[in-house]
Amino acid sequence: MDPPFNEIYKTLLYKQITNSRTFPDNNIPEIPYGFSVTAVFEEVELPVIDVSYLINGTEKEREKCKEDIAKASKEWGFFQVINHGISMDMLERMRQEQIRVFREPFEKKSKSETFSAGSYRWGAPSATCLRQLSWSEAFHVPMTDISDNKDFTTLSSTMEKFASESEALAYTLAEVLAEKAGRKSNFFKENCVRNTCYLRMNRYPPCPNPSEVYGLMPHTDSDFLTILYQDQVGGLQLIKDNKWIAVKPNPRALIVNIGDLFQAWSNGIYKSVEHRVMTNPTVERFSTAYFLCPSYDAVIECSGDRPAYRNFSFREFRQQVQEDVKKLGFKVGLPRFLNLLY
After folding, report:
1. 214-265, pLDDT tens digit by residue?
2. Distance between CA 290 and CA 307 in Å, rounded?
3. What 3-state class would DSSP assign to 198?
4. Rounded to whole angstroms, what are the CA distances from 12 to 15, 16, 38, 98?
5. Which GO terms describe its biological process (predicted)?
């Protein structure tokens, strides 16, 4: 069922002998060339916020909860939410359905008619060097694609429920962050639409080269907010204080992170932080993410008297990211949109 990583990545995974001689297939060298995964200094638990106070708390508790959300978004770019209104039973159903669809044979998954063409993705087809490889597969599904299907009716209904409840949570959090940044909180409901928001179901198979290959290469998210449900295997890492730290899984929590669009829209108040997923030599990892995105024509207007970023549409941002990935093998992102007037 696994994608053919070893077959496709062979020329990038292993060092070639000088004078253009190559190793025979049964004698592949063990030491990869020019790259090793950066060491992690510590494992930490992200800030944990009980978001039930936003609805059921006193005025003082609500305000404290909002302040905690804004503080974590400024200092970490990541936080965890508990008592978020999405039941553990539903999350477990999502995990089981996800496992089931990824257990299908590779040929069936890669040609799946469950979702629109191109929804199933694996690896890093644009990789030009070892550090750009990703040892993972995913179903990247627009919200409008999530509908009943005769082959996967349970999957579709479970995805729809997860997406709808994640969507509601994302709007609530985005409105809090807008309020604390002094921006209009109705921006998201007016500009974020279902045909540009999406779910991504991820699987990270066991990897025979865990010290040389990422599960998902370092990146920032190209959205406003991401809501992540992950299993307890671990592997998510992010940059804090200029060093990589490992995120300790919390079975009660969902992970929320700030995307590029929120960093630009808030004029850098909130941080879109680089993160990655590490591979595991023996255990597979699963996660599901909801991405809150605006319509393609929505304009991201940087706030403040000295905007750090020029205005740009979501369409322009996406096109630039795609061009960079195709040309360079990686995303450049927000640095392309800096306001050079300042």
Report:
1. 999 999 999 999 999 999 999 999 999 989 999 999 999 999 999 999 999 9
2. 28
3. strand
4. 8, 9, 18, 30
5. gibberellin metabolic process
* Residue 28 confidence (pLDDT) above 60: no
Q: Which residues contact 275 (CB under 8 A, 6 or more apart)?
A: 78, 218, 219, 220, 236, 237, 238, 239, 257
The fold of 38-299 is Jelly Rolls (2.60.120)
| Token output for 341 | 């007037």
Task: Take residue 313 and report the two structure tokens written for it.
Answer: 């549409």
* 285 catalytic residue (yes or no): yes
What is 150-187 written as a DSSP string? SS-HHHHHHHHHHHHHHHHHHHHHHHHHHHHTTS-TTH
**Residue pair 297/318 in contact by the 8 Å Cβ criterion:** no
DSSP 208: S
pTM (2 d.p.): 0.90
Catalytic residue among 183, 252, 285, 306: 285
